[in-house]
Automatic annotation (TrEMBL):
Molecular function as annotated in GO: peptide transmembrane transporter activity
Domain Major facilitator superfamily (MFS) profile: 30-488
Native source species: Microbacterium pygmaeum
Superkingdom of this protein's organism: Bacteria
Keyword vocabulary terms for this entry: Cell membrane, Membrane, Transmembrane, Transmembrane helix, Transport
TM helices/strands, residue ranges: 43-60, 72-94, 103-125, 131-154, 166-185, 191-211, 232-255, 261-281, 293-310, 338-358, 370-390, 396-416, 437-458, 464-483
UniProt topology in membrane: Multi-pass membrane protein
This protein's name: Proton-dependent oligopeptide transporter, POT family
PROSITE patterns to which the protein is assigned, alphabetical: MFS (PS50850), PTR2_2 (PS01023)
Organism ancestry: Bacteria, Bacillati, Actinomycetota, Actinomycetes, Micrococcales
Length: 496
């Protein structure tokens, strides 16, 4: 643990342009605090999500809510999209009112309240209250945790991508243990015990972060673009009006469970266009910063394509694992949610490998557009790997096959997700730092909502068109970016 002088020294180094401390596996010690809270947040998030879909479509006799599968997968996609959509709110609160670190801490409290709601409030009320709170809290934490990590490095620090990869390791430690333990409790004592464990995990994260948050640099608490006090009343009025409109739309039946994914898709597209317009038209950014934002657009599009396939782990792959996968291990049937812990195992192993590769290559490593293009192509190839098992009988797909396919998922993820977080903070204009991170998460939001929307077209009796079309679309997106590397890099103005 660092003493007060060391913490003050680290803060001075950050404020002067990057933290040169290297006590956390070669990275700044302050990274350990954000690493910890993100790890426990992911434990609770993925632990809950590991049992969420089957909770919705399992029968009431099995402890579930008895929803139709198509509606349940759409809700999961919409919920996942709403998580990333709410990064806008979290980013705005950080940039205009409170600073990233304070919003991060408050968001963790909201997340814990959501898990408690799922655990203690029965039926559809518990589902609604829990998912809304977790979505809002997770959105606030996601954008701001990434932004806080970005304050620890200068743009040209060669440790930057490695640091984000290590941060990503913390995410996936939580993502690994969450579904394992909540799935075990769900199969032993019931769904609400699993949701309760997710609340306990987030509580542990809050305790750990409460002790370490003061050691973060002052820059993490800075408000880069403060809102004038004269506009507070207007903002409060708009917020209240937005909540009222949402409630009315639900009551009159415009927003329904069966069209939730489509509603979120439309909302994310509108938010994305508005965000790009606001940033690009701002008089507070320089010509170089504006060019870099334009360079971010093709990366955004490829990211959407990637996540629309990758996030089907929580829609199509969950249904596939429940009905088609042979989960028998020496006569014991493992819980459905355990399949979602396979990807984090590979992340834990490979994130260190990728971090070492990027560190070793230094300035010779592939540029971000190359990493993104390859990531989309590999993700498309992963979907094509389902084809040899397509249209099989129940429980006909060997567990080892899914393990292999998820290994390919992981390689694609490590080429896009931590790299995307890193390049976003480098391309961001100074007055839109956190909100640019929110823009990256909007690509995840759109992809996640699309994953729920696309799941309704998945037909276990005729899987070949589904996996083939989506696989080749992703490969095409990646190839198009690889063919456009020179103009994209020119727009990025020195950012690689």
């Amino acid at each position: 643990m660092s003493n007060g002088n060391e913490a003050a020294s680290a803060t001075t180094q950050v404020d002067a342009g990057g933290d040169r401390d290297a006590r956390f596996f070669g990275q700044p010690w302050a990274l350990a605090h954000v690493f910890g809270v993100e790890m426990w947040e992911r434990f609770s998030f993925y632990g809950m999500q590991g049992i969420l879909l089957i909770y919705m479509y399992y029968s009431i006799a099995e402890g579930g809510l008895g929803m139709p599968e198509a509606i349940a997968t759409g809700i999961v996609g919409a919920y996942g999209g709403a998580v990333y959509l709410s990064t806008i709110l979290g980013a705005w609160l950080a940039d205009r009112l409170f600073g990233s670190e304070r919003v991060l801490f408050a968001s963790a409290i909201v997340i814990m309240a959501g898990h408690i709601g799922l655990a203690l409030v029965p039926g559809f009320w518990g589902l609604g209250i829990g998912l809304v709170l977790v979505a809002i809290g997770s959105g606030g934490l996601k954008a701001n945790a990434t932004s806080v990590v970005g304050t620890l490095y200068t743009d040209d620090d060669p440790r930057r991508d490695a640091g984000f990869s290590l941060f990503y390791l913390g995410i996936n430690l939580g993502a690994f243990f969450g579904p394992l333990l909540t799935g075990l409790l769900q199969t032993t004592w019931g769904f609400h015990w699993g949701f309760g464990l997710a609340a306990v995990g987030m509580g542990l994260g809050l305790i750990q972060y409460s002790f370490g948050r003061k050691q973060l640099p002052a820059q993490a608490r800075a408000v880069p673009n403060p809102l004038p006090r004269s506009r507070y009343g207007l903002v409060i009025g708009v917020a209240i009006a937005a909540v009222v409109v949402l409630i009315v739309l639900v009551l009159v039946g415009v927003i329904r469970a069966d069209n939730l994914a489509l509603i979120v898709i439309i909302a994310v597209i509108a938010a994305t266009l508005a965000y790009f317009f606001v940033i690009l038209s701002s008089s507070r950014i320089t010509a170089i910063e504006r060019s870099r934002v334009f360079g971010f657009i093709p990366l955004f599009i490829v990211s959407v394509g990637f996540w629309s396939l990758y996030q089907q782990q929580f829609t199509v792959l969950t249904v596939y694992s429940d009905k088609r996968l042979d989960r028998s291990i020496f006569g014991w049937e493992m819980p459905v949610s355990w399949v979602q812990s396979i990807n984090p195992i590979f992340i834990i192993v490979l994130s260190g490998v990728f971090a070492a590769i990027w560190t070793k290559l230094g300035t010779r490593q592939p540029t971000t557009p190359i990493k993104f293009g390859l990531g989309a192509i590999v993700m498309g190839a992963a979907f094509l790997l389902f084809l040899p098992f397509a249209n099989g009988a129940p429980n006909s797909t060997p567990l080892l096959a899914i393990v292999g396919i998820l290994f390919v998922f992981t390689v694609a993820e490590l080429l896009i997700s931590p790299v995307g977080l890193s390049v976003t903070t480098k391309l961001a204009p100074k007055v839109f730092q956190t909100q640019m991170v929110a823009l990256f998460f909007l690509s995840v939001a759109l992809g996640t909502a699309l994953a729920g929307f696309l799941a309704q077209f998945y037909d276990p009796e005729n899987e070949v068109p589904y996996f083939t079309i989506l696989g080749f679309v992703a490969i095409g997106l990646g190839a198009a970016l690889l063919l456009s590397i020179k103009p994209v890099l020119a727009l990025m103005k020195g950012v690689r």
